[in-house]
Every structure is written in structure tokens, then in C-alpha cells.
Amino acid sequence: MEFALWPIALRADLVRAFRPGEPATREGPFRTLRQHGWATPGVPLHMRHGGRAAGQLVVFSILNIEAAICARCGEATTAASFARAAARIEASGAFVRLQGFLSQCPASTVPSLVEGALIPEDSDLTLVLRALALQTATIRLQRQFARHALAFHVGRISSSTEGYVVVTNEGGQSVAVPRGLARAAHRERIGECLGVINSHVDERELIVRAMPGIDVGREHAEPYSPFARVDGFERINAADQAYLRGRPTPLTIQIPVAIEQ
Q1: Tens digit of each residue's pLDDT (9 = 90 or more) over 186-204
Q2: Mean pLDDT of all residues in 156-163
Q3: Which of 153, 60, 179, 65 is nearest to 114 (CA)?
Q4: What is the pLDDT of residues 115-139, one digit of tens each?
Q5: pLDDT of 219-235, one tens digit each?
Q6: Torsion angle, CA of 194/87/31/35, rounded to 10 degrees?
């Protein structure tokens, strides 16, 4: 697996998934999700600034979004199963570590971080997010969820136009995503990871939700070759970039030295 969906979300994301088009600040939709067991209570994050309390933010496993979509589509049993799986994720050690890292971040940056703002690849926060993303992806593969899997596509932005970005997954399949949706998910530049979740309203209507993605790495990436590539010559993957970057040669500087006899 090379790409995965961003593993965390805010309560507003759950409300939007459950009641598209309604104000995300409404209490009623979230209360409905909780009363039916279609959402977890989330994990409270106590933020501090300058040594003082700076408010509280509640963070959720992304599986709550899938539970909300299932609930909206009438799949109540599956929605409850997703919510129970989300509760297990939120009780995991990785989520506890995430809570600790976010608590140390400036309060003004935490909401955008939860929503998928890009952070350094080698940071401790990125590592724990990758672990959560893989843990979440593994749960989606379970039989009870695979039968009701939502149609989602996650990959790397391979090209872009003024109005769209093209997202190509590790299998070489591509979809076009409106640039406005990509921008709202903090992903619109070539090389960044973006996902979309599709849910049908009826046979003629589809709701497309853009989600930030995260690069979780590929265990056995193919070496670069422009020949026999499924995706042709227009796109390069992480393995290609590593090959083209190569291993730098140590810089040698020769300094003349006068030797007196």
C-alpha cells in the first residue's frame, strides 16, 4: 500500500457527511448520530498557549465519516459497525500519542492539522498519522466492511489544469477532481496525496467528498523505468523520484598548501 486516507477528522466533517448542505455547526445531526450509535464521542484535545489553557477540540477517527455516510444512505447496521471500529481506533496507543503531539502544537494550527494540512515528512506527528492511517486501512479490509465498502479513490496528484487536478492511484487509475475540492482538502499541487469518497444518492446523483491523503510508503517499489510502465511517461512515483535524485557524491575541495623545506 502506498497511499491512504487521512485518518482523523473534526465533528464538522461528520455533520457534513451525514447532512450535506446543512450548516456544519448544527448540534442536531451529531446528536442523532450519537443517539443511534453511528458515531463515537471523539477524543477531547486540551490545547494550551503560553502555559495557559487555550480551549478544547474534539478529534475523531475518520471511520466516523464512513459511519455517517452509511447512516445517511440507510445502512444503519454498517454505520454502527464503523462507529464501533472507530472507537477501537480512538482507544489505541497510536491515537493517545497523536493526542499528545497535537496538544503540544500551537492552538491556532491544530484545527488545520486535523483537517490535513501538510506537515514535515519526518516529523513525529507524521509518523503517528501514518500508523493510524495503516491501522484504519486494515480495518476497512475486514469482511464486514469490505462488503459495504464505500467507493473511494486515493493517490497522488499527477497533473493539473486551471479547474481540475488528476489523482492517480498506485494501480495507475486516474480520476479528475475539481480544484476547489482539492484546495479545501489542503491538496492541490502535483505530487501531493488526495482522496475522494463517492456515495450515491440515487442512480443519477452522486456526492463526491474530497479528503486529504497521506503517503504511507510502498514496501517493494519498482525501480524507475520509462518502459512497460502502466501509467506511461507523464507521471513519476516516489520510487522514480528516489532513483532520479540518486545518492549524492561527497564534495571534495582541494586546497593548495605551501610546504617549506
Answers
A1: 999 998 999 998 887 778 8
A2: 91
A3: 60
A4: 999 888 878 899 999 999 999 988 8
A5: 434 444 444 444 444 45
A6: 140
What is the Cα–Cα distance from 214 to 119, expressed in whole angstroms?
A: 10
Helices (H), the chain: 11-18, 27-35, 63-72, 76-90, 93-103, 110-114, 124-140, 143-146, 179-184, 238-245
DSSP 111: H
Q: Which three cell numbers stand for residue 235?
A: 507521471
Instruction: Name the residue type at position 13.
Output: D
Domain residue ranges in the chain: 1-149, 150-247
| CATH numeric code, 150-247 | 2.40.50
Phi/psi class of residue 113: alpha, beta or left (left: φ > 0; alpha: ψ in -120 to 50)? alpha
User: Does the model's pTM come out above 0.85?
Assistant: no
